[in-house]
Every structure is written in structure tokens, then in C-alpha cells.
Amino acid sequence: MRIAMIGTGYVGLVSGVCFSQFGVDVVCVDNDTDKIDRLKRGEIPIFEPGLEDLVTDNIKAGRLSFTADIESAVKSSDAVFIAVGTPTRRGEGHADLTYVYAAAKEIAGALNGYTVVVTKSTVPVGTGREVERIIREARPEADFDVASNPEFLREGSAINDFMRPDRVVVGTESPRARAVLSALYRPLFLIETPVLFTTLETAEVTKYACNSFLATKITFINEIADLCERVGADVHDVARGIGLDGRIGRKFLHPGPGYGGSCFPKDTLAFVRTAQEYGVPSRIVEAVVEVNDKRKHRMVEKIISACGGSVKGKTIAVLGVTFKPNTDDMREAPSLVILPGLREAGATIRAFDPEGMDEAKPILGDIVWCTDSYNAMEGADCLVILTEWNEFRALDLQRMKDLLRDSTIIDLRNIYEHSDMEAAGFQYFSVGRGTERPARDS
User: Mean of the pLDDT values across residues 33-43?
Assistant: First the structure.
């Protein structure tokens, strides 16, 4: 079997490479010729653990190739995946489907024999039908079916998510398309991965509903954390107490500065707009979007308060700027609100991130970028932990104490214990945990 993956962004590249690891012949297509040339040389444009090795191995095995020639890629493929970007339209919240529909038009001109055209991009309900209409209008005689196969990849663990997913969702009413996609995902059938076949519309709604629900869990526990701070409760114990309920589950109940990344912010907005358009507004998701936006600004106030009510003229060390660890993705990261907010309040920022600084530098502007965690702390009045990279979890507390001008630490990811930090002489602030709480069991 041979497939074409249109788009070499995060979803397209990871999906294409993982399919090639399944033994499928994959050609990844992008109209950015410089990017294609770099990929051919094995240069990976994103940071994702394990991806570079898979690219190298599958290129050597002859199963993975890259091209800017969409026509040749489509003509020789049994299935063509559309994995282009669907960014939020500025000021509207709607998903911008320009690239999806442009890809559909190009695919139409190159179809040669029966082909399954699959939307892998996250798209609003109705997009698959429109892709089908575009292709049918351009090539009435073409032999094809359209399917929806949404991705459920988490940045930082995307390869494992693809190779051992919780489930695979395929939207199609065509037995021929179902047979092609079943063959493509055969390695997952062999390990008894649930594969859910649905209609096009059901698959499209499923993706948005999933991300909106997960964003809701994050926002819920953040609001619980605020309550815990006021009443002296421990949000981690609350999260454990509710997460052990099988109806709720333990995942995504981690308090912090708010969700970010390439998916949750744009997908919740698009879900809200779609629901409004169809006359069934989703009040819950609307509240999630609003609360999450406000939370990032509230974290600025939290930091200023911890610093005695003012950061004017102070230097703040910041560890982590990406929206989560194990990625260089800066899209909608809380740091994009928090750091400018601190600068507007008069602070100087010294920051370090293991992978995200190249992406962050042109976005965040006047920040002092440091060589490592300790370099960031030199002469700083306080330390803020924004992203829970593993290397931040076991820092030398005495060295930190010696480097910081003041012993204030604001840990927005709760990676340290109050008892340990206070014993080391720090004034320690976290999220949803009272300073007088007893130490938790390990």
C-alpha cells in the first residue's frame, strides 16, 4: 500500500512517519521546498522525542520520501491524507479551511484510479462533505471516496500515541474506503486497538468533543485549585479523590497556569462557533474558553502578589516557556501572556527553556535568554516555574538559594513540595496548595 500525506506540519509529519514504520510506503508532500529539502537531509523542523530516528530509519528503508510535487504523489497513492493547518481565523474563532480546500482542489486534478481522500486535519463538521463536493465538481468522473480520520496525538508523546492509541476513529460510509483504511491500520487491529467506524459528521464532531472535554477538565481543576487556596485544601489530594472515581478518571486533573498549544485553544473556539452557527450554543465550552483566557492574566497577578505587590525594577527568573514539556511548541503558551504582563509591570525577565528558546525569541521580544536553569537565576529577585520539564524537578536547592537575590519561588506547575522548599529557606508559592498543609504521602 502507498499513501500520500499532504502537509508536513506536526500532524502530517508524525502521522506519515509512523505509517511508514508500519511498513507502508509513504510520501510526504509540502509546497515549502526548503522544508522538503531539509527533511530529505533528515533535518526535523519540530522537536518530538524519537521522531528524528524514525525519519532516518524509514528513509534508509525506502518506505519514506518527501516531495513538493503533489501530482506525482497523489497519482501513485491508494489513500491521500489532508494534514494541513486549520488555524483560527483572526478575530472570529472559526477554523480557517483555506488550506484544506486548496489541497482538495490539487488532489482532484491528480487522482488516478480509485483513491480514498482522508481528512486528518482537525476540521469542523461538514468539511468532509465540502471536500467531496470540491473534488466531484472538478472531476465528475473520478473514482474516489472521502473519509475522516481525526488524530489524537499529544505533543511530546505523539509517536507512542500513534503506535499504541486508545482508539482509532474513521468516518466513512463507503465499504471500499473502510477496507482501505482497515488494511492501513492492520498493525493496530493485531494489538486489539478499538477502531470505531462512523459517519463523516460523527468523526468530525468526535475530535472537537474530545478536545473540548479535556480542556474542560483542565479548566475545572484550575477553578478547584483557586478554591483550595482560599480554604486551605490541597488540590492534588482533591484531584486524587475525584480521579479515582472510574466515571471521572485521573488524567488532565493537573492544576496550572491554563492550557495552551496547537489544539485546545483553537479547537474549543471552533467548537463554540460551530455550535452557535447550528443554533445549539455550548455554554460549558464557552465558559471554558473565557476562564482559561482569564487564568493566564490571573497568573501575572499571582506572581506580582508573591513578590510583595510589585515587580517594578525587579528581575524575575523564568524556567520553561513552551506550553508543555518535551516540545518546542510556543502556540498559545501561557508564557506568551505571563511574560509580557510581568514586563509591563516593570520586571526584567531572565528565561531558560531546554527546547523552546529559538521559537520563543522572535515572539517574546525583550527577554534575557540564558544558557541553563542556574544562569537564569543569577541575581534574580524571584524564580517562576512555568513549564514542568524533567530537568527542573531536581534542582540543587542550595545553589538556587545562593544564586537568587531573594528566596521567593512561584511554582505554577507544583513540581516541588512545600515542606522541602520551606526547609531549604524558600518562600514558596504554588497552585491550589496551602502553605500550612501537612506533607503528602509519596
Answer: 93
Residue 438 pLDDT greater than 50, yes or no: no
DSSP H/E element including 198: strand 195-198
Checking DSSP bridges between strand 368-369 and strand 348-352, what pairing results, if any?
parallel
Answer yes or no: are the C-beta atoms of 180 and 116 closer than 8 Å.
yes
Q: Give CA–CA dist 351/54, Å, rounded.
A: 32
Sequence-ordered list of residues with C-beta below 8 angstroms from that of 93, at least 6 positions apart, any chain: 269, 270, 272, 273
Residue 10 is placed in which grid cell?
506536526
pLDDT at 252 over 80: yes
CA-CA distance, 282 to 235, in Å (whole number)?
27
Q: In the structure, what pLDDT confidence band is assigned to residue 434 with cuts at 50, 70 and 90?
A: low
DSSP character at residue 391: G
**pLDDT at residue number 435:** 55
User: The pTM is what?
Assistant: 0.92
> What is the SS3 string spanning 398-410?
HHHHHHCCCCEEE
Task: State the Cα–Cα distance between residues 70 and 12, nearest whole angstrom.
Answer: 14
Instruction: Please tell me the predicted confidence (pLDDT) of residue 89.
Output: 80
Cross-strand pairs, 26: 3, 64
Distance CA 120, CA 150 (A): 5
Q: In the prediction, which pLDDT does 64 show?
A: 97
- Cell numbers at 35, concatenated: 522544508
In a 13 Å sphere around the CA of 99, the CA atoms on its Cβ side amount to 22
Residue owning grid cell 530537568: 391
Angle between the N-to-C axes of helices 98-110 and 127-138, in degrees from 0 to 180, rounded to the nearest 10? 40
| Active-site option among 18, 28, 263, 382 | 263
> Any idea of the CA torsion for 238, 241, 247, 249, to the nearest 10 degrees?
70
Average pLDDT for the chain: 95
263 assigned to active site: yes
Report the pLDDT value the prediction gives residue 312, as an integer from 0 to 100. 97
Residue 436 is predicted with a pLDDT of 41
Give CA separation, 359 vs 162, 333, 354, 383, 389, in Å: 25, 11, 11, 22, 16
Count other Cβ atoms within 10 Å, centred on residue 420. Answer: 12
